[in-house]
Amino acid sequence: MHFMKECFADLHIHIGRTMYNRAVKITASRNLTFTAIMEEALSRKGMHIVGIIDCHSPEVQEEIDLRIKQGILSELEDGGYRYSTEQGDITIIAGVEVELHVGHGLAHFLVYLPDRVSFASFREWYASKVTNVHLSTQRMYVELTDLVEKTLSLGGIVIPAHAFTPYKGVYGACVDSLAQVVDVAKLAALELGLSSDSTLADGIDELWQTTYVSNSDAHSIAKIGREYQDLRVAHPSFFELKLALARQEGRGVQANYGLHPQLGKYYRSRCASCDEIIEQPDVPRCPYCGKEGKKVITHGVYDRFKEISTHPVGEHPEFRPPYKYQVPLEFVPGLGPGRMNKLLQRFGTEMNILHHVPAEELAEAVEAELAGNIERSRTGNVAFVEGGGGIYGKVSL
Fold first, then answer.
1. Whole-model pTM above 0.85?
2. CA–CA separation, 247 vs 173, rounded Å?
């Protein structure tokens, strides 16, 4: 079997607006449309597969049908859509993010379907369980087990989204054990989120047979590809992705690429009043400013892992691929829009710059200091000011 040398996939990208300028994801950028995502991911980011969430919206489905009629988009025989231009091709996996009540809180889950027929069937069922089918991440009034069984019956897959975050993460906000509410083996993978990584997640024994994915959860064009994975697949399609997540027939995740958890905005517990990081988040009031209340201290992912971990830190199952810390180019100090465009004009895509362009060639395009910053950032050789409480961490060079 011949496998692709690289297959970069970001499976969690939201839609801000439809082609008619109707809001889908309220908190997402207005220019984050279905077509804009495809163009950016292909021509600037250099992705091979993107999972576009919010494809349940009737107007987004209308745009998909229009692009197919125009010949820009086509359905693949083994699932997914192929977007083709003179610059190349990219595969689209259509998805939906839903919000369910699980345990003692609300959590987000990602659902992906292989084709228009299965998606239409799911959308009809979905529309009967939510109050507004046009908007993203709607509260769905079903049990998690029902969502999983319905999706599997249509040939789709379910993945818990940003599983450890304090806001709508299934571990972060709802349960200490996922196995208590669902058969973990029926989940295709688990999304780590920006404030965690494989080392932290492998501290939970029940996840030792689970594949991890690292995605951007992009709410703006610039955030596409800030986290992603390199898949071992024969070609980019839905069923190849499904095999890779199941680690079957030689497929799999070759590497996860993402922010160091310390850069994540929910890594440490933080006081919302004075912004100080709290070392003991279970205290009734902030030890710095004295404020108290349920919403004063935002519980961090790091502290949550300390509460629920059941396995020694640093051990991994044999199949676990490396998690490679990589700072997105937009985080690199000194790399503004002008210099970024200069690099892209010379080297093509961000993936090419991050993975293939030698440091000496970068130095020919931009000054040596900036080239050095890029080299250190793409290898994770930097220090961080920790994030938390909704505030991203910062790169320190």
1. yes
2. 29
pLDDT at 146: 98
Give the pLDDT mean for 43-72. 96
pLDDT at 293 (0 to 100):
81
Helices H, strands E: what count in the chain?
A: 11, 16
Beta bridge partners, 212, equal: 190
The two tokens of residue 298 are: 């935002």
CATH number (1.10.4100, 3.30.420, 1.10.150, 3.30.750) of 330-379 reads 1.10.150
Q: Answer yes or no: are the C-beta atoms of 54 and 111 closer than 8 Å.
A: no
The residue written with tokens 């920006």 in the block is 194
Calculate the CA 271 to chain-centre distance: 26
- Smallest CA-to-CA distance from 163 within 143, 134, 145, 187 is with 187
Please state, in angstroms and rounded to a whole number, the distance separating the CA atoms of residues 344 and 328.
14
Give, for 323, the enclosing helix (H) or strand (E).
Answer: strand 323-325
- CB under 8 Å to 318, separation ≥6 — which residues? none
DSSP H helices, 249-355, are 301-308, 337-347, 350-355
Write phi, then psi, for 241 (nearest 5 degrees).
Answer: -60, -45
pLDDT band at 216 (very low <50, low <70, confident <90, very high): very high
184 phi/psi in degrees, rounded to 5: -60, -30
Residue type, 6: E
- How many C-beta atoms lie closer than 10 Å to residue 99's C-beta? 17
CB atoms within 10 A of CB 317: 11
What sign for the dihedral angle of Cα 364, 89, 225, 203? Answer: negative
pLDDT digit string, tens, across residues 85-129: 888 999 999 999 999 999 999 999 999 999 999 999 999 999 999
At residue 86, the pLDDT reads: 86
What residue spans define the domains of the chain?
Answer: 8-262, 330-379
Q: What's the Cα-to-Cα distance from 234 to each of 80, 115, 242, 254, 300, rounded to whole Å?
A: 14, 19, 12, 13, 39
The residue among 383, 105, 97 whose CA lies nearest residue 215 is 97
How far is the C-alpha of 202 from the C-alpha of 311, rounded, in Å?
Answer: 7
CATH class of 8-262: alpha beta
